[in-house]
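Morning run. Coffee first, then this:
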Amino acid sequence: MNSALPAVDTPLAAANAAAASFAALEAKLDYLDAADTELVRQAYRFADAAHLGQMRHSGEPYITHPISVAAQVAEWKLDAHALMSALLHDTLEDCGVTKADLLDKFGPQVADMVDGLTKLDKLQFSTREEGQAESFRKMLLAMARDVRVILVKLADRLHNMRTMDDMPRSKWGRISTETLEIYAPIAHRLGLNQTYRELQDLAFRHLKPWRYSVLAKALGKARHRRRDLIQKVQQDVQTTLADAGLEARIIGREKTLYSIYLKMDEKRLSFAQVSDLYGVRVVLQNILSCYTALGLLHQLYKPVPGRFKDYIAMPKVNGYQSLHTTLVGPASINIEFQIRTEAMDMVAEAGVAAHWLYKINGSGSGPGDQLGTQWLQSLLDIQNETRDATEFWEHIKVDLSPDSIYVFTPKGQIMALPQGATTVDFAYAIHSNVGDHTVAAKVNGEQVPLRTELHNGDVVEVVTAPVSSPNPAWLGFVRTGRARSKIRHHLKNLAQDESRDLGEKLLAQALRAEGLGQPLGQETSERPLWDKLLRFTGNRSREEMMTDIGLGKRSASMVAKRLVTLLAAEGVKPDALLLTQARYTAHENLSQGAVILDGAENITIKYATCCRPIPGDGVIGYLGRGEGLVVHTDDCAVGRRLQQKDPERFITVAWADEPVRAFEVGVVVTVVNGKGVLARVASAMAAAEADIVHLGMAEEATQEALDLRFVVTVRDRAHLDAVLRSLRRTASVLRAARIMPAA
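And here it is:
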């Protein structure tokens, strides 16, 4: 989409007025019937009137842009509604037309498509990036419901890139980068190969004009030098296939300038070192002919080892099918051959748009019916769990990587995943329930860590357990947007549940301090009291208020005092005995009502890394603002400073009688530097049943005495004492002590 300019009276505008006529488009609409053509004509008249007097940067009437977009849509043989949307796609944004106007005149299909294409310029966003993310979220969700939206959008972007020279140079960088990062990958994902290649080259030309120009000249010279060679290859292939009785269409092609530039940049090559500049496409009648032709070509020229790929048996995620092989042609020039059927060639060039091409050609339902549907559905899944536009867009960008790998389930089903995908990505690709309950994985029959990256041809088996749940650490290595959004969604829900439970405990503790033994129930009779309390806190529900208390966003003490005031108005008085106990235990050392720490993994309660509390330590709980409960030792210098600064945010915490896991603690061991000392120290820790989590040491390894700093796991204070005694008895150890934060 381009912002319209006011009318400019120039000879160029007058000269190009003819291009704004409907006749230029109508010539391409021979596949539509008369009624559909008339609908498109009505949309043209409406758009022409809406854009009347507006000009493009080139001086042409603005209507030439919608007509060019519609012409590209007609190339893909899309239906009348898509053509109408292409003609009307800028009317909402630039002309003051409302969605209701379009709904009334052209119906809901066209109105929804145009709305999905319209940028959100009228809304106020905190940053340009946020606005862009919201705009793409809207467009992609419209696309998930109706793929024609993105086809029209890609046609729009393609025409804007073709006419970029007329735009201010200051805009080239932003628009070209956006095209390379977003629109070209979407075109690739949806199988529009021709559009993908052209968008990349146009963006490259405007992003790096000097490099583009140098490469274009070099490729032109190479093309001139090797024209005869390529013609000879085509003739040899044609003759070889004809002699075998195969009818084939042979097309010579060369790499795009952008793909050549990428290869030179990634592999640090000069232009002369890029060997496979040329390719030959061989289009045949059926799949059997493709494999026969492959054998004949391997006899004609020598194949390059490791450069054969069978995308017919294992199609790409966007539906692309072809045999790829690189052969050493005359003069030792590497030439890539792509061998496919006519139907595959149509899908390879038009991708999702091939769905309509199949319809026009009377082939019924072709592979286009299934193209991109899996990815488009995943957009809706991610949206259901990610309401934040920027986060949504981050997930989608991850999924736009054009490189895919193909792995198998134990039953032989093929699954396509992005390059670098892990066993956890595989688990979520099968089903979100499988991903959520994954505990282990096997690749090719061998047990592997969950972060293991998968490779082409791997057979992957996932082991699940009903009690297992997603680990926050998975976010550090998963590759797909689906896995990332599912994990975040689960953790968000888990954090809310745990925060709500913690909030219940904190409020009960605060009410006890105010002399109320029982928290307010949820009976119908007490509903008016809850409504008054929620108005005071500004929360929409009791659950939301408890979650806010658990996260530290709201003070349990303030809520308790307000509740006491409301109850007093109803004639309910505090319990004198409880109030006396609360005053007597002014420092809140009352274990009854304290938050119990059992070490169960959760998100709301964290153990401070400054002092690393373990069972047996005296502990205090700091309710950070929005970060849940942070536990410190009662003699921790950091905790004391926080207590002096913010005393009302500290609450009573106590260890459970039998914690369910080991805890991390810091230990410093001073040793006499020498051969084998680290091994002896590690052995002493292992003998005392302490696991080493982390090791750090001073850089001055040549000094006589050296401090080794460990983070180890222990059960409690008694276990830590046993570990320290074991270390002190070890040869070469001078001192061993727990690390505590400096005062």
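DSSP finds 29 helices and 20 strands in the chain. Good start to the day.
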